[in-house]
């Protein structure tokens, strides 16, 4: 009897989600003309290169660098805009090279990012700050732990993060696994695969909205619920558009960062910098062993797992705890 009830409830949930999608599709033409997204800021980081970034939350709050996932852009930080405003957090969300209007360059290394962040913090006159890395943003957060002094960097939290990609690919999302294999052995095929599956569907705003509506309906159930809020659909469409607006090359270069040697040992991150590693146990994109790998190689880190969360839902469902931990370490 309980099984029948569970099946019925699941069908009801799917029907509710379908209704939300239909309502959103009716508003599509209206959304295409709406200019509701903030403009990025720009900083000239070298003679040849600019980095752009967004700011969300409380302008006078605790500075938090937000490093977006893969693929994505700094617009991803807008997911936390409301709670950051409420709780006194200033989110600085930079676009990686080639994303949005940040200057693309190639080849690049993961360790380059720590220097970029240090320069951006100096430009913004931030003496102390915290870092949050989401999914593919986690390596970019951790490399800062290696190269930025603890007197400036108060804490690092990674959520649904990727670990160094060695031989163990068991449980990783199928398309992600194919991308890893192609990237290692046939980089040109990786570019073609990105173009076919993502770039041509997200490289202009109108297509990005339509593709988002289609793609989120196939997300794991734990993550689908996030997109019952219309604003989250719009933010996701926008960050994907900004990831691919300059073509496939920037995203491919970002993908290669994960496949190459990261350029430092996780165990060498200063123990003076508090690190928490968060992961949903129901993550179907990057399995739990990724977080366990990171925690094992960063001995002083704290591993937090969430039994009922997936890849995207963890940060949404536990944003209150996230803010508390950021504040705790910043004032420690």
What does this protein structure show overall?
The protein has 332 residues and is α/β, with parallel strands linked by helices. It has a single domain, classed as 3-Layer(aba) Sandwich (Rossmann fold). The protein contains 14 helices and 8 strands. Helix 4 packs across helix 5, helix 6 packs across helix 7 and helix 7 crosses helix 10. It is globular. The N and C termini lie far apart (52 Å). 42% of the residues are buried.
Topology overview:
Layout: H1 2-26, H2 28-32, E1 41-44, E2 50-57, E3 62-67, H3 81-87, E4 89-94, H4 112-123, E5 129-134, H5 138-147, E6 153-159, H6 174-185, H7 187-202, H8 205-215, H9 221-224, H10 230-244, H11 249-259, E7 275-280, H12 288-297, E8 302-306, H13 313-317, H14 319-331
Parallel strand pairs: 3-4, 3-5, 5-6, 6-7, 7-8
Antiparallel strand pairs: 1-2, 2-4
Helix pairs in contact: 4-5, 6-7, 7-10, 8-10
Main sheet: strands, sense, barrel: 8 strands, mixed
Instruction: Look at the structure and name the CATH superfamily.
Output: Alpha/Beta hydrolase fold, catalytic domain
Q: What is the CA–CA distance across the termini? A: 52 Å
Could you give the order of strands across the largest sheet? 1-2-4-3-5-6-7-8
Tally the beta strands: 8
CATH topology: the name is Rossmann fold
What is the CATH architecture term? 3-Layer(aba) Sandwich
Count of DSSP H/I helices? 14
Order of helices and strands: HHEEEHEHEHEHHHHHHEHEHH
Give the domain tally. Answer: 1
Which percent range fits the helix content? 40-55%
Shape: globular
Any idea of the CATH class? Alpha Beta
Name the beta content range: 5-15%
Structural class: alpha/beta
């Amino acid at each position: 009897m309980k099984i029948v009830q569970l099946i019925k409830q699941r069908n009801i949930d799917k029907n509710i989600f379908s209704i939300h999608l239909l309502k959103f599709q009716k508003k599509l033409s209206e959304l295409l003309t709406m200019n509701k997204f903030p403009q990025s800021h720009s900083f000239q980081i070298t003679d040849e290169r600019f980095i752009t970034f967004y700011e969300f939350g409380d302008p006078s709050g605790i500075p938090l660098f937000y490093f977006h996932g893969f693929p994505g852009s700094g617009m991803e930080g807008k997911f936390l805009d409301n709670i950051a405003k409420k709780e006194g957090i200033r989110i600085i969300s930079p676009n990686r090279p080639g994303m949005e209007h940040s200057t693309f360059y190639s080849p690049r290394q993961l360790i380059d990012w720590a220097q970029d962040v240090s320069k951006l913090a100096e430009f913004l006159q931030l003496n102390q700050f915290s870092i949050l890395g989401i999914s593919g943003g986690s390596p970019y957060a951790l490399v800062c732990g290696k190269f930025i002094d603890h007197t400036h960097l108060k804490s690092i939290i990674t959520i649904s993060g990727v670990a160094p990609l060695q031989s163990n690919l068991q449980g990783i999302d199928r398309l992600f696994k194919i991308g890893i294999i192609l990237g290692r052995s046939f980089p040109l095929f990786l570019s073609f695969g990105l173009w076919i599956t993502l770039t041509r569907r997200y490289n202009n705003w109108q297509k990005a909205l339509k593709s988002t509506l289609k793609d989120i309906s196939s997300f794991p159930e734990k993550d689908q619920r996030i997109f019952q809020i219309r604003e989250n659909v719009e933010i996701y469409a926008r960050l994907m558009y900004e990831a691919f607006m300059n073509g496939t090359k920037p995203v491919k270069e970002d993908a290669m960062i994960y496949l190459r040697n990261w350029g430092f040992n996780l165990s060498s991150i200063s123990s003076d910098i508090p690190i928490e590693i968060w992961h949903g146990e129901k993550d179907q994109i990057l399995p739990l062993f990724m977080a366990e790998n990171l925690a094992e190689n960063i001995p002083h880190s704290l591993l937090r797992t969430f039994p009922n969360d997936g890849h995207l839902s963890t940060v949404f469902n536990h944003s209150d705890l996230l803010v508390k931990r950021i504040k705790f370490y910043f004032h420690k």
